[in-house]
Specification:
The complex is a heterodimer of chains A (about 120) and B (about 200).
Chain A: H1 3-14, E1 25-32, E2 36-37, E3 40-41, E4 43-50, E5 60-69, E6 76-85, E7 92-100, E8 106-115
Antiparallel strand pairs in A: 1-8, 2-3, 4-5, 5-6, 7-8
Chain B: H1 9-14, E1 18-22, E2 25-29, E3 35-39, E4 47-48, E5 52-55, E6 74-77, H2 81-90, H3 94-121, E7 126-130, E8 135-136, E9 146-153, E10 159-166, H4 172-191
Antiparallel strand pairs in B: 1-2, 2-3, 4-5, 5-6, 7-10, 9-10
Classes of the chains: A mainly beta (about 120), B alpha+beta (about 200).
């Protein structure tokens, strides 16, 4: 096979953006410490949803929402929003969202990440 | 359906208006035989539903019956999503589209959370027990699936909980909003207009 006949294939392999919509791979995790109120544990709720969109791996987006409800007088805390991560080739983007305990301090984190093109 | 403008197709036919409507163009032939082809301007859409699209008349249509006669609106049965959304958002300013994008995104999450709550209340989900300080890592799921974790901490710090993972397709209301929001974002990109992501979004990688 001639080299010239292989060049188009090489281009296809090297320039995938021109051929298809390439997406990021998202990953997430939750780390929980302790959130107590007068010796009783609190209740947590965490929801996260990767909602990347765009073409050519344009954006790695997370929508998230969390809440903590504690007994007695400690009350509740909640948060939510959107995290946009860089998604450059061969790099991994990441961001931590801190969750606060109504009784004081930070009790946990949600870690969002993405990597380009499944790499 | 907007009752003010929503005239059924049957009524339009009964009024003797022959109509052909396709994507991006509106062709109307009056009973007098005169006709006009006018680009379908986004601002002409007055009523919009997923399964039905009402296109009001183009005012420039000529009529020999009366110069100021305006044909009734026309319904297009089962237009494709791209047609509907192109018309819906085409007339909006950039700022309006950004606001709409954010509203869709927020409503989408709200809808998803409501469905998750129903499922948790029914006792669905996988049980998890985590010793104090142990991170929770949900199993990988197909792209765009949502993960939700509900838990309670015991006095000794142990976390007892459940998690659910669902696809947007399992939440039809949220999925429709999600589709619409994605369409809007990508349309913005392809139109080369303002990013919907407030500067964190890079085009043309």
């Amino acid at each position: 096979m001639k080299l010239s006949s292989l060049l188009p294939l090489a281009c296809i392999a090297l320039v995938p953006n021109a051929l298809a919509e390439i997406q990021c791979t998202e990953f997430a995790g939750v780390s929980l410490g302790t959130c107590m109120c007068e010796g009783e544990g609190c209740e947590y709720s965490v929801t996260y949803w990767p909602t990347s969109f765009g073409w050519n791996c344009g954006n790695c987006r997370w929508n998230y929402d969390w809440s903590v409800v504690c007994p007695f007088e400690c009350g509740a805390a909640f948060g939510g929003g959107v995290v946009d991560l860089e998604c450059d080739p061969h790099q991994r983007g990441g961001k931590d969202i801190a969750m606060s305990c109504p009784a004081g301090g930070i009790f946990g984190h949600i870690n969002f990440g993405c990597s380009y093109c499944g790499s | 359906m907007n009752a003010k403008f929503g005239v059924p197709l049957a009524a339009a036919i009964a009024l003797g208006v022959g109509v052909l409507c396709n994507v991006g163009q509106y062709r109307s032939t009056s009973t007098s035989g005169s006709s006009a082809v006018t680009p379908l301007a986004p601002g002409h859409v007055v009523a919009l539903e997923r399964d039905r699209l009402v296109v009001p008349p183009i005012l420039e249509i000529r009529s020999t019956a009366a110069d100021d006669a305006v044909p009734p609106p026309v319904e297009v049965a089962a237009p494709d999503l791209d047609t509907v959304l192109t018309l819906k958002y085409g007339a909006m300013t950039v700022e309006e589209r950004v606001r709409e994008f954010r509203r869709l995104e927020a409503d989408c999450m709200k809808s998803l959370k409501a469905e998750l709550q129903v499922r948790f209340d029914r006792g669905e989900g996988q049980a998890v027990v985590l010793p104090a300080g142990t991170p929770f890592q949900a199993p990988a799921v197909p792209k765009h699936w949502a993960t939700s974790f509900r838990a309670k901490q015991s006095a000794d710090g142990t976390v007892h909980g459940r998690y659910l993972q669902i696809s947007p397709e399992e939440v039809p209301a949220a999925f429709e909003l999600y589709e619409e929001r994605n369409w809007l974002a990508q349309k913005f990109d392809r139109d080369g207009q303002q990013s919907l992501l407030e500067g964190s979004y890079k085009r043309d990688r």
